[in-house]
Amino acid sequence: MSEVVLQVRDLSVRYGGVLALSSVSFDVADGQIVGLIGPNGAGKTTCIDALSGFTTPSARNPSFSYISFLGRSIDRLSPQSRVRLGFARTFQSLELFDDLTVRDNLRVAAATPTWISTLTDALWPKRKVDAAVEEVLELLGLDRFAEDRPEHLSNGQRHLVAVGRALVGKPKLLLLDEPAAGLNPSETAELSKLLRSLPDRGVSVLLVDHDMSLVLGVCDQVHVLDFGSIIASGTPEQIRSDPLVISAYLGHGSSGVDEPAPGAGSES
Ligand SMILES: Nc1ncnc2c1ncn2[C@@H]1O[C@H](COP(=O)(O)OP(=O)(O)O)[C@@H](O)[C@H]1O
Ligand SMILES: [Mg+2]
């Protein structure tokens, strides 16, 4: 259980004059759900972008590994290569294809074409992809909506489609960017249940959200970002009572460190 899937060390990202991420370090171990929380603008999406290869770290010492995946430095790998190694991510804006059915949204995501797969697809229909898509549709309770277009679904169901698209490639590490944004309490509770089932399916999770209640309810470890730096790390219990965390949240006009959402966690 202690194998480190993701190791992040001294990771910084600068956008012009803004230091969006400042020397961030943390690990995600096999089977762990790790939370990254913080107020708007704290650097959460930037962190996911850097991990998934969508943005470039500002410090780039070639002899240092800023991001390692299963013991291997991935600093120089493209987003596609990271996906092939076992990364998957969602986007805050969901990025669904609204003119495709839910099933086809998942199918497209499951296909990672290479020249060899293009060749083998001509010989064998995509039976493996179809099986993976059907499995994920069922897991997420989306099978009933498989032939619908995402625009006809509720906000919560659309978020599930986004998570489903990330899951069909059978990732080892899932990076989720605010999957609970705009969900109602029962949808959030459903999402919590799903997230907690992922480690048993071999998927470790980095859960980025500013919904403290969701994160504190499902995560094993939580890191709190504020202005690009990690200001606190610990178990949900430790984070909930950390004075720096409370002041960062209250300082940004949030309502503070809430109790977990209904059904979101085992703690009361
Ligand atoms: N592409 C970009 N260009 C310039 N500044 C950016 C860009 N993306 C994010 N930022 C800035 O970086 C900081 C962190 O943003 P972000 O990672 O989106 O925060 P969060 O996801 O925690 O709300 C903010 O100050 C934001 O304005
Ligand atoms: Mg964000």
Can you describe what's shown?
It holds the Pfam family BCA_ABC_TP_C. GO terms for molecular function: ATP binding; ATP hydrolysis activity. Residues 6-252 form the ABC transporter domain. Keywords: ATP-binding, Nucleotide-binding, Transport. It contains 10 helices and 10 strands. The protein is an alpha/beta fold and 268 residues long. The protein folds into 2 domains: 1-86 and 171-268, 3-Layer(aba) Sandwich (Rossmann fold); 94-170, no CATH class. The strands form 2 sheets. Strands 6-7-8-3-9-10 form a 6-stranded mixed sheet, with helices on both faces. The protein has a 4-stranded antiparallel sheet with strand order 2-1-4-5, with helices on one face. Helix 3 (102-110) crosses helix 5 and helix 3 (102-110) runs parallel beside helix 6 (155-167). 41% of the residues are buried.
How many individual helices?
A: 10
The third-level CATH topology of the largest domain is: Rossmann fold
Element-level helix/strand string: EEEHEEHEHHHHEHEHEEHH
The biggest sheet, with number of strands, parallel, antiparallel or mixed sense and barrel status, is: 6 strands, mixed
List keywords for this structure.
alpha/beta, Rossmann fold, 2 domains, six-stranded mixed sheet, 10 strands, binds adenosine-5'-diphosphate, binds magnesium ion
Short description, anyone?
Residues 6-252 form the ABC transporter domain. It holds the Pfam family ABC_tran. With 268 residues, this protein is α/β, with parallel strands linked by helices.
Topology of this protein?
Blueprint: E1 4-15, E2 18-29, E3 33-37, H1 44-52, E4 67-69, E5 72-73, H2 79-85, E6 87-89, H3 102-110, H4 115-123, H5 127-139, H6 155-167, E7 173-177, H7 185-197, E8 204-208, H8 212-218, E9 221-226, E10 229-234, H9 236-240, H10 243-251
Parallel strand pairs: 3-8, 3-9, 6-7, 7-8
Antiparallel strand pairs: 1-2, 1-4, 4-5, 9-10
Helix pairs in contact: 3-5, 3-6
The structure holds adenosine-5'-diphosphate and magnesium ion.
